[in-house]
Design brief:
eight-stranded mixed β-sheet, 2 domains, five-stranded parallel β-sheet, alpha/beta, 14 helices, Rossmann fold
């Protein structure tokens, strides 16, 4: 999808600059031409020789290279590219771009370009959270600059939090998306995620331990393949990804209404952990102890079955409907029966028993069940599961 595309890659100063070498390799594997620009600070972490060798092209660094500037080289470089990518994008580079400053080659190229710019921020979490950086980010987004990441994780400085540069493959996907590529371009995919909360009274509710991590990762993976994603989410711990349409709900009935409003869609993936039951006699005021020692009597009603309703639609049904089955025993048997009962095309089954550590964790081990049988995947990160499932969805919609 990147064959023939010309990427101007600006490498900022920071330990994450080492990832830029892998990014160059990944882009060239996909047929892109990479023109590298190495800042003076970036050259403290990676060498011009290694950058040039991997790119198969000259590595630029000096604004006042007389040979290039006699031909207005900074204008030519900035406008001959299909996309400008800054990875890592340091707080300093972001501040220069937000303020329109151009004291060096990298910032001059960013100011002189008539093409889109994609930033992959990387910095210490305190720098990322600093009010000036947040202001600069708002300004850059308002100016139309694209952003991928940063991710959360361990820092080279020993701290943990947001500020890690996105991984090279994430940046590649963002580049493809920025250039209008990806197998799901023109497709609309609906994703539900997170738990629902069913009120008992104004301050109490029934919920579950779903973090929303798998649904959020899946929405991001589908987005990265070019899809327009509607993301219907309950009150999840994990925030929704950027670049998707977010619809926030609390109860199962609110989720059903949001799903119906989002249709039609080419595919619908129901990753939410929807409560099967709700309190039918939820109190209007906070329930109090009455001194009798007896708990209040709660009457329950069954919630709407969102997956079954969409799977069994006579008109406007998505071409592909995918459900999730979170089970604690006889996982494959229960999940297979659920697929037939609901009428969906695929069921993604996983074991969420306490010993698995999957519910609320960072990894997952799933089996995808369809009409042809069951395909078990090894345990991997939820992001990796999402990318693999998104690719499977793209293949199915292309068939």
């Amino acid at each position: 999808m990147l064959a023939g595309k010309r990427i101007l890659l600006i490498i900022g100063g920071g330990i994450a600059a080492y990832k830029s070498l892998d990014l160059i390799r990944r882009l060239r594997e996909r047929g892109a031409t990479v023109v590298p620009v190495l800042t003076r600070a970036g050259a403290e972490f990676v060498t011009p020789l290694s950058v040039s060798a991997l790119a198969g092209a000259k590595c630029y660094s000096d604004l006042f290279d007389l040979t290039d500037e006699a031909e207005m080289g900074h204008i030519q470089l900035s406008r001959a590219a299909d996309l400008l990518v800054v990875a890592p994008a340091t707080a300093d580079l972001m501040a220069k771009l937000a303020a329109g400053l151009a004291p060096d080659l990298a910032s001059t190229l960013l100011l002189a370009t008539d093409k889109r710019v994609l930033l992959a921020p990387a910095m210490n979490l305190r720098m990322w959270q600093h009010p000036s950086t947040r202001r600069n980010m708002v300004q850059l987004v308002d100016d139309g600059v694209l952003v991928v990441g940063p991710n959360e994780g361990d820092m080279a400085c020993g701290e943990y939090g947001p500020g890690r540069m996105a991984e090279p493959l994430e940046i590649v996907a963002a580049i493809a998306r920025a250039l209008g590529g990806g197998p799901l371009v023109g497709r609309h995919v609906l994703v539900t995620s997170g738990p629902t909360q069913e009120p008992i009274d104004p301050v109490r509710y029934i919920a579950n331990r779903s973090s929303g991590a798998q649904g959020a990762a899946l929405a991001a993976a589908l987005r990265d393949l070019g899809a327009r994603v509607t993301f219907v989410t309950g009150p999840a711990v994990v925030p929704p990804p950027a670049g998707v349409e977010v619809v926030r709900i609390e109860t199962a009935r609110e989720m059903l209404a949001a799903v119906e409003a989002a249709l039609p869609a080419d595919a619908a993936v129901f990753a939410a952990a929807v409560a099967d039951w709700r309190v039918d006699n939820a109190a209007a005021q906070k329930l109090k102890k009455d001194g009798s020692g007896r708990p209040p009597m709660l009457a329950f009603a069954e919630n709407p079955d969102i997956l079954a309703r969409v799977s069994q639609m006579l008109e406007g049904r998505p071409a592909l409907v995918v459900g999730f089955a979170a089970e604690t025993e006889e996982v494959l048997a229960h999940a297979g029966a659920k697929r037939l009962r609901k009428g969906c095309d695929w069921i993604v089954a996983n074991d969420v028993s306490p010993a698995s550590g999957i519910m609320g964790g960072v990894e997952n081990a799933v089996t995808v069940i369809d009409a042809a049988g069951a395909e078990s995947w090894p345990r991997m990160s939820k992001d990796a599961v999402a990318r693999r499932l998104a690719a499977r969805i793209a293949t199915a919609l292309e068939a």
